Amino acid sequence: MRSSEVIPFVYFAALTVLAWLRPLPVDRKRQITVIGLSMCAAVFTIGHHAPGVVRDWAPGVSVLVGYYMSGRFFVKPSDRVEDWLMAWDRRLLGDPTTRFAGWPPALLGYLEIVYMGCFLLVPAGFAALAIAGHSALADRYWSMVLVAELGSFAPLTVIQSRPPWQVEQKAALPDRAVHRFASRMVERVTIQANTLPSGHVAGSLAVSFALLGSLPGIGAVFLFLAVSIALACIVGRYHYVADAVAGAALAIGAWAAIQ
Fold first, then answer.
1. Global pTM value
2. CATH fold of 69-258
């Protein structure tokens, strides 16, 4: 099996075991177990029997399933963790809900749009590699991305908090229509729990780092988008500053370990 197959296999197996060690409702334990065992079987089967093109793209599914699976562990936020995260935001930003109210609406709208499109960066990054004739780098690419993404989701099994938009009053931003649309999307399609580190930041930066070596021009574009996403997480109040910083550190660590 490739490294990019071993990583999700270990992740799903570990979370399956952890579900029975954490104080979760029995139905949650069963759900996690079914998901975890099914994904372990799928990853193992693909790794040993699937054609190369399937193996090249399959890790993207592990990222998506890994995210929602981690959300099944969320039961109750820790007041201590949330207070610590919010204290740092206030120390660095003042009042986070009004800190960016004076920014140009066009800039804020761009940040919201980039944030909403974050989930497209992961497959787009590998598509860029494949189109450029670098499919042989699939294992390296996905290993780096999986360490960043799954490494962001795993702590939610123990460290639980709500995202800032659930804790504080709504952010006062002039791009009201775009922000309202982005907020509704977040409410409907996310697990509505805060990941520390930020998976948005860690994953998007890992994609750019994975591309810079072989496709420096495209990698630079993805790096610009990743930085924009990191800023959007804070400005739109989807993540705390500490989440973004930890996500960046995780992505750098994944790059240093796998490059």
1. 0.94
2. Vanadium-containing Chloroperoxidase; domain 1 (1.20.144)
